[in-house]
Design a protein that fits this description.
With 685 residues, the chain is an alpha/beta fold. The chain is built from 25 helices and 21 strands. InterPro entries: Glyco_trans_1, Glyco_trans_2-like, Nucleotide-diphossugar_trans.
């Protein structure tokens, strides 16, 4: 009877809301992106970019109760424009819209939310489109991750709803259609994600590639986006199930969504094969996709490190952040141990503010999530790696501290030689090309950017600028106040061509890089990598550098940019015979992108996992071999014991006989010798 009841329960058709095992207890939803507070560094940077790039599209129908709150949320994002598509409202919705500085597209007939989004997308002029409904207001900090994903290179950013289906006892047909469509598209990682769920965002280019008219059928637009190879990400988790109000026509909406998915599957069927078959589908997917790893990244704490993402300083933190973002984008489950206030796509576990560097390893070990497959220790002292945890651990060294551990990763061959003693791995650092603006037109100024310390070559850069009569902009945090006060400040006072602008980040840093005639990198120490070089190359700006540390490796494609002394650097600044900006950009994108860096890190993670498995198997074999064999029957043991005893006794007897025979032979020989000697004496007498 119980089995029959359970079968009946599974065949029930429910509305779009899922039925949970424990409806009174809220589900824990692991986020793909954490919320981004509007007053944070990242939030402010996104809001400033939204003014020129973001269009918010809101579709409404009889929403006078929520209209003011919805528009307030949209305006808090500081978009370039807010477009409200009002269709067939009979209440005061249109009147409320006209009170705000928004573009209102009003229609007397009820068109529906999907058609309204297509209309709004066609009217939008921004680079990124964020789609909302007038059903309920959403915290703007939860909306920023969708916009950020599109700024970071995603074409479509979806709402990640899989956590809410985790404990569902019954799933409606419309939701199953979403899952099935993603399965057919060979994107099982998208799960229940779909363009039918709001909020979601996409770039204007993606909307045009999909076709504005196809946005009126969201599942079809979703299928076209994946089929055309657009980058479709599940960017953030917003609980629309609890927020969305239940309408009287909710069942009709479910049937309409199911019909739209059938239309999308039919569109896919016409372009792939005559028949959609799951048998061949699973075989293809097993060949093309792999399960993501469960990874922990641990970095140092303040004051040695800065919160994520770094704004105007922190090269190690930037590499750490870019690697983490790319791994999450590739479908890996990443946990990050970082200073308080850090935000990224991974799940962040914050350090206490007073946690020392030496105690980081113990803190990570005490809060290590379950089933972790690999740990990457980015701390300056490898405090996690030194604990020798049972989890495969690799240590990444970004600073030449003069010591290393086994299974370490170095950012250059030079550091691998000097610090690693030619042990470990080499992975060049990478950055995201989309984060750097590219411009072929350059202005007539030189740029020095980096920490204000003697070994970075700031004094050499000043000398080059003064000798060649060029304008020089110095940017970076002051780490040696005595050097700045005694040797740099007097130069700033006497020379109008030398300018110090402080530590820079964001848009200011972008402008300095892309407009500079040349970046000076006259280092006098063993530079581990030199992130400034690839940042300049990514913007199409040449770099003149001394051949110290990793410089010959980073500039291997352009050896003419390497200067062996300051006089040679002055000559090359004056001659200005640099490679083209397009060549520099292509070289940096090809060799030093964060995608290339992440691929190499994943290979290393897989390698140390396999080696740890082999070592564990060997140790288990030795342990089992040392264990005593199972007891045999008593008679068998007694027979063996008697055989052993008899063997031992016979051996003893034979050895004893040999000894006695030997001794008797020796005694007879002695007796003969004595007799012969006595006979000889008697004859003499």
């Amino acid at each position: 009877m119980k089995k029959q009841s359970t079968v009946r329960k599974k065949r029930q058709v429910t509305p779009l809301k899922t039925t949970r095992k424990k409806p009174n207890k809220p589900l824990a939803s692991p986020r793909i992106h954490e919320s981004i507070p509007l007053d944070s560094y990242m939030g402010q940077a996104l809001l400033s970019r939204n003014k020129q790039s973001l269009s918010v599209v809101i579709t409404v129908h009889n929403e006078e109760a929520y209209m003011r709150k919805i528009i307030d949320v949209a305006l808090q994002l500081k978009p370039k424009e807010t477009i409200v598509v009002e269709n067939g409202s009979t209440d005061r919705t249109l009147e409320i819209c006209k009170e705000y500085p928004v573009r209102c597209c009003s229609y007397s007939n009820r068109l529906g939310h999907d058609v309204g989004r297509a209309i709004g997308a066609k009217a939008a002029t921004g680079e990124v489109l964020l789609f909302l409904d007038g059903d309920f207001p959403i915290d703007p900090s939860l909306l920023l991750p969708f916009v950020k994903s599109c700024y970071d290179g995603a074409d479509v950013a979806l709402n990640h709803l899989d956590p809410f289906y985790k404990n569902a006892t019954v799933i409606d047909y419309a939701s199953m259609a979403k899952f099935y469509l993603n399965d057919l598209l060979l994107r099982p990682d998208l799960g229940f994600c779909s363009l039918t769920a709001i909020p979601h965002a996409m770039t204007k280019k993606a909307a045009l590639a999909i076709g504005i008219e196809n946005l009126a059928v969201p599942p079809k637009a979703h299928a076209i986006a994946v089929y055309k190879g657009l980058r479709v990400d599940k960017s953030a988790t917003v609980d629309v199930f609890h927020m969305n109000k239940l309408r009287s026509y909710h069942q009709e909406i479910g049937e309409m969504i199911l019909g739209d998915h059938i239309e999308a599957i039919q569109w896919l069927q016409e372009r792939t094969s005559s028949r959609v078959s799951l048998a061949g589908l699973h075989q293809t997917r097993s060949q093309t996709s792999k399960r993501g790893l469960k990874i922990v990244h641990a970095m140092s704490n303040v004051p040695a490190a800065y919160p994520l993402p770094p704004f105007n300083q922190g090269g190690t933190e930037k590499v750490f952040y870019d690697l983490t973002e790319e791994l999450v984008h590739r479908g890996h489950d990443v946990y990050v141990f970082a200073p308080k206030g850090s935000t990224c796509s991974a799940k962040v576990i914050e350090y206490p503010p007073d946690l020392n560097e030496k105690d980081i390893g113990s803190f990570v070990a005490s809060r290590l999530p379950s089933s972790i497959e690999v740990i990457n220790d980015f701390t300056f002292t490898s405090s996690v790696k030194r604990l020798k945890l049972p989890v495969p651990t690799v240590s990444t060294h970004q600073c030449p501290l003069g010591w290393s551990t086994s299974k370490s990763i170095y950012p250059s061959k030079r550091m691998w030689d000097t610090v690693g003693k030619q042990r470990g791995y080499i992975v060049y650092n990478g950055i995201h090309p989309d984060d750097y603006e590219y411009d072929e037109k350059k202005k007539d100024y030189l740029l020095f950017i980096g920490r204000i310390v003697r070994e970075k070559g700031v004094l050499e850069a000043i000398r080059v600028a003064e000798t060649t009569n060029h304008r020089l902009i110095i940017a970076g945090p002051i780490k040696d106040s005595k050097l700045f006060a005694e040797e740099i400040k007097p130069v700033l006072k006497r020379s109008a061509n030398i300018e110090y602008v402080g530590a820079v980040g964001g848009k200011t840093k972008q402008e300095l890089f892309k407009n500079a005639k040349c970046v000076l990198f006259p280092i006098t120490w063993e530079e581990p990598f030199g992130l400034v070089m690839i940042e300049a190359l990514m913007t199409g700006t040449p770099v003149l550098a001394f051949p110290q540390g990793s410089v010959p490796e980073v500039l291997a494609g352009f050896p003419q940019l390497i200067c062996h002394n300051i006089e040679e650097m002055m000559q090359k600044v004056t001659a200005a015979a640099f490679p083209s900006a397009a060549q520099l950009r292509h070289y940096a994108t090809d060799r030093f992108s964060r995608q290339t860096m992440a691929e190499q890190y994943v290979k290393i993670y897989e390698n140390i996992r396999k080696s740890s498995r082999k070592s564990s198997r060997k140790s288990s074999r030795t342990r089992t071999s040392k264990k005593s064999a199972p007891a045999k029957p008593l008679k068998t043991r007694q027979r063996k014991m008697t055989r052993k005893v008899t063997r031992k006794s016979t051996r003893k007897n034979t050895s004893l006989k040999r000894k006695m025979k030997k001794s008797s032979i020796t005694t007879t020989r002695r007796m003969r010798n004595r007799r012969s000697s006595t006979k000889a004496k008697v004859k003499k007498k």
